[in-house]
């Protein structure tokens, strides 16, 4: 067997698809009862399409905003100012996280719709 035949037998894209599926399966184990959000294989659409679906499925639900308040170094009233700033930041983070939760749902629906569309296109070729 020459070097060209050896390269043809090893399909790197199939290996990468298997690795991606395993990574997504581990991510989905943290959310039992959910089926995988995307399909990562097909013949009709380019590997780059499936790579983008994979990348999107890794981050579609990562939108939480953390509280970060810098310290106030003002004598006498610094503690009061710090507490007021913290309360205002907590309020902002609360509403931003509420909006982020809705954005996560939207992201999941769009990602799933694109994946289903890809599956439909792949099924037409068979």
Protein described:
This protein is mainly alpha-helical. It has helices at 3-9, 12-29, 47-59, 78-124. The protein is built from four helices and no strands. It starts with a helix and ends with a helix.
Number of helices: 4
Structural class assignment:
mainly alpha
Mean pLDDT rating:
82
Indicate the overall shape: elongated
The description of the largest β-sheet is: none
Short description, anyone?
The protein is mainly α.
Blueprint of the fold:
Elements: H1 3-9, H2 12-29, H3 47-59, H4 78-124
Q: Which labels suit this protein?
A:
126 residues; 4 helices; mainly alpha; 0% strand; 67% helix
